[in-house]
Every structure is written in C-alpha cells, then in structure tokens.
Amino acid sequence: MSAVARERLARWIAAYRPDPGLPDELVGADGFHRGAWPGFLDALARLDESDIMARFVSAERHIRDAGISYRIYGDQREHAWPLGSLPLVVEAAEWRSLARGIEQRAELMEAILADCYGPGRLAAEGLLPAAVVAGSPEFLRPLHGVAPPGGRYLKLYAADIGRGPDGRWQVLADRTQAPSGLGFALENRMVLARTFPDLLETLHVERLPGFFQALREGLSLGAERSEPRICLLTSGPFSSTYVEQAALARYLGLMLVQGEDLVMQGGRLHVRTIAGLKRADALWRRIDADYLDPLELNPVSRLGVPGVLEALRNGSLVMANMPGSGLVESGALSPYLPGLARAVLGQDLILESPRAWWCGDPAGLAHVRANLDALTLRPAATPQRGAGRDAILGPAALAAEREDVVRALDDRPFDYVGQEPSPLSTTPSWERGPDGLRLVPRPFALRVFAARTASGWQVMPGGFCRIAERPGLDPTEMRLGIRSADVWVLSDQPVTTPTLLAQRIARPRRIAGQLPSRAADELFWFGRYTERTEAVIRLVLAHLRNTGAALATDVAGEPSQATSARIRGLLEEWGAVHDADLPTAALAQEALVGRERHGSARAHVTAARRNAAALRPRLSGEAWRVLADLTDLLSLDETRAFAESQLLGRAERALSHVSALAGLTHENMNRGPGWHFVELGRRLERGINTCTFAVAFAGDGAGAEDLGTMLALCDAQIAYGARYLQGAALAPVRDMVLLDPHNPRSVAFQVEAITRHLEALPALSADGIPEAHRRLAAGICGGLASAEAEALDSDAMARLEVELERLAEAVAARYFAGGPDALRPEKLAGLA
Asked: Is residue 704 part of a domain?
C-alpha cells in the first residue's frame, strides 16, 4: 500500500469509536480491527477518494434510471432505493458457522410446523403450550391435516440477526410468512457489481446466482408437471416491496401475478391470460396467508383467490410458503425453541435468540412482573416485526406507561412476551466530515435467507442489510433514515464469475411467455397515458408558439382570439387547467406541471409511470431512464412563476422525451403480446385525440389559422407544405389528418395499425368468426377507406371519435381481467 493510501485509511478510522458494550464489526472487544474488515479497507484505500465518490454517484444514477425504489408503509409515494456506500463484509469461516445455524433453525421451524398442522405431539408432550399454537392468529385451522404438496411447509426461510452482547450472532426474528428483502439484496449486489467490479474480484466475494438457481428449482419441487409454470403472487404496485418482487420475477423468469389474475377451475389454479386460462403449478406468495382465500380465511380480502386452498388439499398446487407457516414467527414460541431443538433435532441451537418469557406461562409471568423495569415487552399473538418496532414497553418507559402495561398483564397476560433488551450491534458507515470522508459506527440488522432444495437447505452467501444513518435509529425496517447495504462474504479462494442464471432451458425457444390479462391492461394504459402526455404537450406548444399563424398565409396580424380560445377551452375540458382565462404563461405552466390537475402532462406521465411500475419485468432500462427524465422535466416547483420562454423550452424537451419513449417501445420491446397492447393503447388514444382536435380545429367553421393549428398538433406541417402550395384549406387538411393511410398520424393510419395488432392477438375459439372487437375495428377501417374528405363534417368526426372509444371498450371487455369474457367457456380449451 502506498503512503497516500495509508494516510487515507488512517484518516478514515482515526475517530472511529464504537459505543461501549456494543459489539462492532470493525473493532473487537480487544480494541483491534477484526474479521474481514482490515483486508477490505486496505483494498478500498487504494482507490482515490474522489474516485470512490464518483462511483457512488454513478450507482445512485443507475438506481434512479432503473426505477429501483420502495414505499414506506402507509405512504403511497415512491422513494429512491437508499443503497449505503459500504457493504457489510464477513469472512468465509464465520459465514460457514452462521450458515450452519441458519440451516438448523430452518429445519427446526419446518419440524414444528409439520407437528402443529399434523399429529400435535409437541403440545401433547408438554414441549410447547397448546395455547401458543391454537391462540395464534397465524394458526390456520382450515389447513390442519393438509399435507403440503411436495412435503415441505417452507420453501424459503429468513432470519433477522445481529450480534449479542457477547459478540456472537443471535436471531432477532424468524421470517416464515412471506420473507421479503431477497429482491432488494439482489438489486444491491447488481448495483455494487457495476460500481466496484474490481473489488469483488480482488477480495473473492462469493457470487449469488447459484443460490437463486437453487431457489427457483426448489419452488417447483413437488409440482405435478415436469415443466411447471411458477407464479409470484403480489399484492400489487402499492406494496412496499413491489419493486423487489418484480425484480425477482424478472431475474428468475417467473410470472408476476395479482389475485385478480388467478382463478380456480376444476380444482386447479389457473392464470387469466389473453389466450385463455393457463394452469399455475407453483405459487410463491408474497401476501399474508390470511388474505389468500376469502372463502375460507379472511372474507374481506381482495388480494387472494377464492377457493385456492382446495388446490392445496388435492395436491395440484405447490405453494411457497405454505399458508399458516407464519405461526412460527410468533414471539411466544421463542422461550421454547432451545428445548424443542433438543427434543426434535437432538441438537442444541447454534443460533439462539435473546432470552424471553411468555406471560401465558405462570412462571414466565412471575419473572416478567419481577423484572419489568429491566425487560422489553412485546406482543405474543402477532408475529414479531423486528427488534424494536413492536415493543410495547422498554426499560426506559415512563411511569404512566408502566402502569398501563401492568393492568394489561393482569387482564390478558398471554398476549405478551418479556424479552431481555438486545441493542443492535454496529458496523462501519461513511460520514462526511470537515476534512473528507470518515468511518463511524452505526446500528445494523442483517437478514439471511435459506432456500429448500432437493438436497437440503442452501443458504444465500450474502443477505439483506439495513443500516441506520444515525445512532438510536432502529434499522429493522426500511423507512426514512435507514439505508440498505450489500453483504459481501469473502471466500478463502478465488470464486468463479457465473452468469446471472445458469442455463436451465434445454433448447432455444422463440415463443413468448403467456401474458396475464391484468398485465395486458397495464400495458394498454401505459400506451394511452404516454399518448395523452404528448397530446397535452402539443396543445401547450401550439398555445405558446402561435403555430396556426405560420400556415395561415391569408391572415395578417396577431393570431385570432378564436383559435386561442379553442386551445384554452380544450385544455380546460381535459382537466389540464382549472380556468381557461389564465394568462398565457400561467396556463401553460399549469397544463404542463400542475400536480393537482388530473389532465396535466405531469399527471399523465405520473399515471404512465404507475402503470409501468406494474410492468418492470417487461420494460427496458433505457425506457425507465427516459421515463425518469420525463418525470423530472415535468416536476417543476409550482410555487414559482416561469416565463413563457422557459416553459416553451421545457415543453419541447418533454416532447422529445415522449418521442424517445415511443421509439424505445417500438425498437426494444419483443414483438410479443405485450408490445401489441402498448401499441393498441397508443394508436387508439392517438386516433381519439386526433378526432378531438379535428372537431375543434377542422370543424365546419374552421379558419386558416385553426387549420394551421390542426396540422401542427398532428406534426403534419412539412408534409402538407410539400403536397400543397397554397395555404391551409379545409378538405385537404381533413384528408391528411383523418383519411390519409400514408400519414403516420392520421386516424386511418391508426385504425389500420389497430386492425393488424388485433389480428396478431389470440382468439377465444377456432371457428374463424371474428370476435366483436375485431368486427368493430374492421367496420371503422372500411368506413375510413371509403370516406371522402369533402363529405366529412363536424358530426361525422364526432361519431368517429365515439366509435374509437367503443373500440377501446371492446378491447378491454375481451382481454382484461374485469371484462365479461374473463371466464368464457372457450377459454377452458387447452389449459396448458
């Protein structure tokens, strides 16, 4: 190491002082640097500090461009993923010991679940109080006696861990319900692999693809078919962990579905797709079990599938994890785990939890009452959600709080667990000081994952780490002030650099996967909202540029008030502005960036991004970057008043981004059903908007300036000027924007494209008779082909707009989940 690097490292750690009594990852109890950190920091110090910061700026830009985000529970806003600037590093020997403890604990949880939903021997022999099982809301009685297809209750197990006072790892909470964080851990690694590829290779960091390959194979163990269809069930884009669920579906090649995408038929679970019902063989659920089946579990649920438990009973569906597995997350189970491990596994627990006492046990209640001021009190009947979030009473509680808890213990003691306080240990994190970067200790929590495979449990060589940005903040859940970190397990020897996924397909395949009806709906509206964004921007540009006067060669002087009034009136009608009489700049600003206006360009691009969020596995990274840039362009500070020239420039750039997004969709999306639905949405919306423009600016009383504006809105000025030497005239303009099949912005061009896209989509039956939406499209196409511009009038153009709206509704009725064709009997033919 050079002298400069040594000086840099010395400056980083000069003021590093762990809190007394708290274990730390960098500094051991003897005051010396420990574990894998010295080697990691030596390697990091060889990089220039400005280079390190530049790399993390690049990482943050990638996170933004890729749309990696999360939601805080109860907050509908998306927050950029807060990736920390340092990984958590663990040496290989320590990780091997930790992995053995995780495997043991996973096997113990599996055994407890098998007994609680089966013979009940543990309760009968007094090893586990029956009230801990039967009194838990996670014990699902409809599943008692139901053997899990594939023979395993758990396909994925996770544990939140931290270091105890003695420096050894301990389990803070078991995660068996629907463990989250795996996708975020994957995203963290993919970002840091781009940021520090040299360090990963130099330090021999263990790679993750082997674990994910094993996880995917394990999800299908027990499926009836040799090539099972695996679905990942999500609660939807407003889930706080939806982004990671989409990342996992994309990475593992799973079908991302919501409850409304699934239906039971013939005792088996099927996915509603645009080609009919397709069988689902395995389901990785990411919703709580209680919401899974409204017929037998929570009747108010809108997230699950009515009757899905029947598929578990008859063995036609493999599920990860089995409903009811959340039972072993209960804090009331913790005091009995050491004894259960000895009785069930014949082993002592390798990874223990902080000592705990269930207050439903008289001895436990007596201990808690006698030591209430020294314990942390937690709910017993609900699963633990972390080391601090669910605490009811801590050692530093106020007297009034203590009195309330004492009364609660007298009333319902079995609802509580007393636990020894377990302050979180610390790990190094960056902090910017007056003389540059420095390392400071910060609390962290680590989630480790284990996947069940045909040969046993396999622990992921990494994990999901959360670090508090300041002391005293609990990092056991993602929220403001908490950052995530990659976890590097440093191998003793060089590691191979595998591809993202091992080859699992024996032969090439060109047939696109099945498209769920809901995904088709989202894609369709993504296309419509991007087109609406463009329409509003073009109206604003027409308003700011006075484009109509440019082609109105027979009109002199200032633009007519009538044309301006039509533009303003249309913006108000669309909900882009609240008052058509606003000053020019104010009207343009509100139409472009008005947060409270449902019809503003900003509102439409926000809606497009919301639809895109449900389609993350289907959109390219370039499309996400353009969408992010477009969102930024239309996110001006509304409290400031911008000049017309500023708004004009921003509108022009936004229009370029919309065009780029359309180009990326056209060039980068595979020509499968998803692309057809994006194009259908765009073409239908463009046709409808063009009809609206034509009624306003090419109606029966249109003047030359109106017609010039019409051509500008359809981006047809150059084509018109090349075709006609005279100024704008009514019949030629109508022909160009409505009937010309060679003009890519005419209504006729849109309808011809719509017809081709519909023909490429699957039909419900094979009788050769066109379905209703195809007949409607063919009728509109034929009417336009035979129409003459001289015969068109305002009423005819308005009727054409209505017909296009009817066609959009017909497409929705045929293909989308809420349509009346969702369960047509023909769909049951060929349930592959």
From this structure: yes
